[in-house]
Structure formats: structure tokens, C-alpha cells
Amino acid sequence: MTGPAVAPGRPRGGRRDEILATFTRHVADRGYDRANFGDVAAELGMSKGTIVHHFGTKDRMLAEVQERYMGRRLDEAHAFLARLPGPEQRIAAFVHAGVRYSTLEPATTVAFQREVVRLTDEPGMETARSQRDAYRDLVVATLRDGEEAGVFVPGDARLRSLQMFGSLHWMWTWFDPDGRLRPEDVAAEFCRTLLRGLGVPDDLGALAADPHGPVARCVAEVCVSAPG
């Protein structure tokens, strides 16, 4: 007797996760349009039919990559927001986390960042799109809270969130985790620049940006690598 069917997009582990991880790496290396079932199957020594059996379509595979990735990011964001009281700490945590993902999950992060535009209106991306929007809303709410508390100077929170995401989401085009710049130093520099622009006093900004400070430590504790 066969077991119950697994709905598309639901993690099952084992061979299925191996297929998804290989596909994710191919998307990170060459982009979604050039990634294909044939290359994934050849690398794993299986038939393309096996991949189709597990995922159905390439679109469904990409959607699952995005959904898993954003699901983890949302869980982590809620965790560090619950532990950090100050708005400058919370905004800095989003930046520390955003840079940390480039070393924690390099292939998945690059795959997500390369193809994030597909979340705009591609069919099948509704879940990932809503997750992305929920994450953005957390950042916007934090920016507004900081303004209301007098910690941030008045400004357009949505526009500020776009500035922040723009700097982080394009890191895949230039950042080398093994290069001259350490990820924690990149995060600290980004934090200092952002917080100064928001009007945060230098002493508070320096503490929030510190790569060895309480914010960075909190992020390190709640941000974990993908299972398997």
C-alpha cells in the first residue's frame, strides 16, 4: 500500500530535498531560465520523470524555493523583533540578517534575489508573494514605529524600506563571502549608513551596527541554516 500523497510544495525530505537543493544551486549559478530538469537529473543520476513526479513543473519548484526561503525569514524576523526593544535595534537586525543570509544560505539567497522579480505577478507565486509582502510590512512598521517614537526623523517609510531592500537584494551581484569584505563588516557599514540617514544618534547607531554587539548576537542566535 502506498502512503498518502504529498501536496506540491510540501517538504518531504530525502531525495526530494536533494533535487530541490540542486535545482536551487543551478538557479543561483545561471538563473531560472537556464536551469532545467535535464541538468538536475543528470547531476543526480536520475530520470527527468522522477523530478516531474516530485514537483510537477519547474515553476512549482521555483515557487517552493521562494516559499521555503521566505517562510524561514519571516520566522526569524518575528523572533528577533520579539527580543529587541528599540526601533534602531530592530532595523539594524533586518540588515544584519539580510547580509548573514548570503553566507548562511548562499545558493538559496542568490536564487531568491536573482528571481525575486517573478514574485510581482507570476502565476503560482501567490504564497511566496504574500510572504514577501508580510516581511516588507514588518520593516515598514518598524520604520514608522521609530518615527513615532522620535528615534527616526520623519520620512516615507515605504520608500525607506525600498532603499534598504535595494542595497541587500543586489548583494548577489558583487558580494563574495570569501572575499576581502567579511559579511559582518558589510552589515555593520550598511547599518551605520542607514541609521545615520534615519537620524539615529551615533552612539545608538554604533551599538546597533556593532558586528559583535547585542543586535548581531541576537540575529546570529535566531537565524539558522536550512534543514537538510
Task: Kindly list the characteristics that best describe this protein.
228 residues, 0% strand, mainly alpha, Arc Repressor Mutant, subunit A, elongated, 2 domains, Tetracycline Repressor, domain 2
What gap, in angstroms, lies between the N and C termini? 27 Å
Task: Give the total of beta strands.
Answer: 0
Mean pLDDT: 89
Q: How does the major sheet shape up?
A: none
Structural class from helices and strands? Answer: mainly alpha
Keywords: DNA-binding, Repressor, Transcription, Transcription regulation
Organism: Actinomycetospora aeridis
DNA-binding region: 36-55
Domain HTH tetR-type: 13-73
Chart the SSEs and their pairings.
Layout: H1 15-30, H2 37-44, H3 48-55, H4 58-83, H5 87-104, H6 106-114, H7 126-148, H8 157-169, H9 183-197, H10 202-209, H11 214-222
Provide a concise account of the structure shown:
By secondary structure, the protein is mainly α. Helices cover 67% and strands 0% of the residues. Keywords: DNA-binding, Repressor, Transcription, Transcription regulation.
Describe the 3D structure.
The protein is an all-alpha fold and 228 residues long. The chain folds into 2 domains: 15-58, Homeodomain-like (Arc Repressor Mutant, subunit A); 59-222, Tetracycline Repressor, domain 2 (Orthogonal Bundle), CATH 1.10.357. The chain has 11 helices and no strands. Helix 7 packs across helix 8 and helix 9 runs antiparallel to helix 10. The longest helix has 26 residues, at 58-83. It is elongated, with a radius of gyration of 19 Å. Residues 36-55 bind DNA. Keywords: DNA-binding, Repressor, Transcription, Transcription regulation. It comes from Actinomycetospora aeridis. InterPro entries: Homeodomain-like_sf, HTH-type_TetR-like_transc_reg, HTH_TetR, KstR2_TetR_C, Tet_transcr_reg_TetR-rel_C_sf. Residues 13-73 form the HTH tetR-type domain.
